[in-house]
Amino acid sequence: MTGRGTYWQMMRVGRGAAASAEAGRIRYWALLLASFLTVLSICGLVLAAAGFDARSERGAARSPRLVEAFPQEQAVALWRNSDDLIGNIPHDVIYITPLTPDAPPPPGLSRWPEPGQAFLSPALREISSSEQLTTRYGRFAGIIGEEGLEAPGERLAYVAPTAELLDRKEMFEISGFGGPGVESLFGEHVHNYEPAYFYAGYIFLVILPTGLLVVVAVRAGAAARDRRITLLDALGATWRARACFAVGEAAVPVAVGTALAVVALAPACAWNVPVPGTEFILSSDDTRQSLSLLALVVAAVPATVLGLAAVFQPRRQHRKLQRAAKKGARRLSQQLAWLFPFALLFTIRGAELVPRILFLPVYAVGCVIVFATLPSVVGLATRELGRLLARVGRKAGGPGLLISGRRMAAKPGSTVRLGATLIIALGLAAQTQLWAGLFGDAAEAAFATRERIGTTMLQITPYASEKRIRNLEQALPSGAALVALEEDFGQARMEITGSCEALQSVKAPCPPNGSSAQVAYANADPRLQELIKRAGAGPSSGLSVRQGDPSNVPMQEENVYALLAIGQHGQDLSIPELSRVANQTLAMRTDVGVLDSSWIAGTGQMTTAIRWVRLMSFVGLGTVALAVGFTAMAEFLRFGRDLAPLSVLNGRRSLFRSAAGWSLLLPTVLAAAAGALVSYWLAAPVTHGVGPDRLTLMSLFPVTGGAIVCAVVLALWGGRAAALASDGWRPTVT
């Protein structure tokens, strides 16, 4: 037989050996899932890069050619960008007016909107009617085409202001859209973090866990596999022959997993696919433009996995060295376990006591020590848990509980690896979510204000002409009153002007016309207290109120002016309703929101980032759970073979299901709960607890839930696999 024929023969032998090997089915599914998830994860990275590039190109193609930047070109339209909020997520609102009848409309529009009309992107159009988006900016004119959007899920509006509200001084003259020398001036990319942050999070939370799963899958059932490889070595097989044997063992599941990944990716080439939990929609055009790179990934991943299967062959190690290493590791583990509670206390309380400049390094060192000592604690806890389960099983007469407890106490290695890996992975995912969702002090204060007073008082800008303010006041919904706010930040002075009815709605005095009255902070309405704190006047300062017409306040150049809509009976006001009224009566560009809503708008990119972090953490931790679960299940299957004689005496297959539940499911549930609790404690010194996406035990539930679901599946599968393996047991005479 030729050398090439020998290699093919070894591959066929490897494929046959894999089907009948110990833990062969577990390794089959581990390799299948590893190949499937690795192809999907790397293809996801390719699609993300293609999406970022395509978004930049589409953003530049729709950006205006400002006459200021291209003075040799003739103006054909007026253009102005603005933004608006839904929750704390900002989106762009573009005001446009053509100057010539033959001016081409912006990409994505079939025509210019008529004065008082608005085109909306599909994402804005599909938002709940409570936001009144079809009437907020004007009469609904149609949908923006996909060619005019950075991504299919982008929120965008094109608005043509009415002749009465058109402010030419605020608008820019443009000569068209796109072309050489034009950069993207607006769009989703402005409201989100740079792509580098996404790549870093994706590699850390998705790519690395899938790499771990690949290594685990290649080494699954290693004990029996290593014996086969060692036998081939003893029979004189060359390294290449042994490698071909290993490739033959892994070829079928790797090929099936890759094929399933291709099937899963196929719909993204034909349709726009929404990404769960992120409000992002993957463009099918971007997917089709990346087909060559995707094909390269589909070819490279299985080749890499098979190469690892061939390379990861057993190494010879002296048994005395193995025993010495295990004894040293056990002694070190016991010593480190006593360091854990002090490290946790140091991180939670010590970081709060040091100067602010030292907080971050002290906190980081504390977290590293906590995660480094955590496996030792898990090891001690596992032994104690095993002894407890054994005692309970002996008293209750439960053989599965008794056997699992004694095994856990005597050989806790697999359980420790399972629990410690899950806890550390959950802790790292929680830390990523925590730091991605940290808001600045001003944003935290704005969220705190919103929680205290809700929308019972809303700020409206700009402070327009007397006629327009009166039009706004007449159009206000019932139960809302209007006052003018004048702020002198240099003197920390504030004054409110309004009717007696409006002033009394915030429990302020109503002085005679032409005079003002002071309102002390301690006695002020909670809404006025928020105003005083925002201006930085402090609790010791007061606020002046004046009876008068809010549309006719004497203006001073150095002061800042705004309007306040107040719920007369303390009721919440509707931001969408007031936005619609202000856009129709006050100005071309208006801003309606809670106090300091501009700071809240700045947290939108953090909210979007947290959504991605939660999704990637769910995928990453689920993958880690599969990796350590497959390892634990392979060891449990060997344990199940040892239980075969007991199943003959017991006469019930439920012994295996019970043992799998106590050996696989219970440690995972306890590890997930412990990981969530430790992560929550570690977050205490960092989070202020007022943002909408703060780290809570409930925010960790999707990630921990994913790990528990994987554990349930693996426990059911492990119990069934052990029961089937026991069917082949036969007593032997020695």
Strand line-up in the sheet with most strands: 1-7-2-3-6-4-5
- Gross morphology: globular
Figure out the total of helices.
23
Distance between the termini: 40 Å
Number of strands: 16
Based on the structure, what is the oligomeric state of the protein chains? single chain
Mean pLDDT equals: 79
Give the radius of gyration: 33 Å
The portion of residues forming beta strands comes to: 5-15%
Q: Give the helix/strand class.
A: alpha+beta
Q: Pick out the low-confidence regions.
A: 316-322, 688-693
Largest sheet: 7 strands, mixed
Number of domains: 4
In percent, how helical is the residue content?
Answer: 55-70%
Set down the secondary structure blueprint.
Layout: H1 3-20, H2 24-62, E1 64-66, E2 77-86, E3 89-98, E4 117-120, H3 122-125, H4 133-136, E5 139-143, E6 156-159, E7 172-177, H5 195-219, H6 222-234, H7 239-270, E8 273-275, E9 280-282, H8 284-289, H9 291-311, H10 319-337, H11 340-353, H12 356-396, H13 399-410, H14 413-436, H15 441-453, E10 457-461, H16 466-475, E11 480-488, E12 493-498, H17 500-504, E13 516-520, H18 526-534, E14 542-547, E15 560-567, H19 575-585, E16 591-593, H20 597-601, H21 604-650, H22 654-683, H23 701-727
Parallel strand pairs: 3-6, 4-5, 12-14
Antiparallel strand pairs: 1-7, 2-3, 2-7, 4-6, 8-9, 10-15, 10-16, 11-12, 11-15, 13-14
